[in-house]
Specification:
By secondary structure, chain A is of the alpha/beta class. Chain A has a single domain (3-142), classed as Rossmann fold. Chain A is 55% helix and 13% strand. The model of chain B has no long low-confidence stretch (mean pLDDT 88). Chain B is of the alpha+beta class and 88 residues long. Classes of the chains: A alpha/beta (151), B alpha+beta (88).
């Protein structure tokens, strides 16, 4: 059965940077998405944040490469994006207040919470706070997993 | 060699790919295909997980070349999210 998940920027940036300490785990998460075990939905703000993080640290040209990957995943439905509406903004604001988390963290948690998706984040601070609202999977949950079959 | 197959378009634009072609290109139920607009029409490219991973690895290798080694992805995202507060 396909599991619905929400992926945080920390996972996508890690998957897109060779040499990142958690990249093998991030790659495993992406493999689960590519092989159809996971259907990923995230906030529209996440790809924007990923591109910004890469542009600032690796350069504009590299961020364009990342953007093209993210757009491809979005267009093919591998990592779909949930638009930010006023209802979602309100729910995210309530989460930010209740869980005392940053705005961006709350927007991503709201995406997961809306359809009871599991949130996948490698950010332990975010994971700890998000546990109050959604099921959370961190890098520790993927350390010893293997993906075998194909779509 | 070009082979031609004909199929009817369904009410929502669904088109059945011929069995021979599905088998040859590994198109299975639940799998994904990329639709590419070309001068002659729509080209369907099966999205294989292996190909997607290979593509991801290639992009990651390129980005990794200029990404500062001392900054982890988690740290980068956290820094960006908290920057406004740190600046104060």
């Amino acid at each position: 059965m396909v599991e619905e998940v929400t992926v945080d920027s920390s996972v996508l940036v890690s998957a897109l940077v060779k040499g990142d300490v958690l990249r093998p785990v991030a790659r495993r998460v992406m493999e689960k998405i590519f092989r159809g075990y996971y259907h990923a939905v995230t906030s529209v703000t996440v790809p924007v944040e990923v591109c910004g993080a890469i542009s600032k640290r690796a350069g504009e040209h590299k961020a364009i490469l990342a953007k093209n990957q993210l757009l491809k995943w979005e267009k093919t439905g591998l990592v779909a994006c949930s638009e930010l509406t006023s209802d979602r903004m309100e729910e995210a604001a309530e989460l930010a207040i209740k869980l005392r988390m940053s705005g961006m963290d709350a927007v991503v948690v709201q995406t997961a919470k809306e359809k009871k998706r599991a949130l996948i984040t490698f950010d332990e601070e975010m994971a700890e706070k998000a546990k109050g609202a959604v099921k959370v999977l961190t890098h520790k949950d993927f350390q010893n997993t293997r993906v075998t079959s194909q779509i | 060699m070009t082979e031609k197959y004909r199929s009817k378009v369904g009410p929502k634009g669904q088109v059945v790919v011929a069995k021979e072609l599905r088998e040859r290109y590994g198109i299975k139920e639940g799998g994904l295909v990329e639709q590419v607009s070309t001068e002659k029409g729509v080209l369907l490219i099966p999205l294989s997980a292996d190909r997607l991973l290979k593509e991801l690895d290639k992009v990651a290798e390129d980005i990794g070349k200029t990404w500062p080694a001392e900054v982890s992805a988690v740290k980068a995202v956290r820094e960006d999210r908290e920057k406004r507060w740190l600046k104060k």
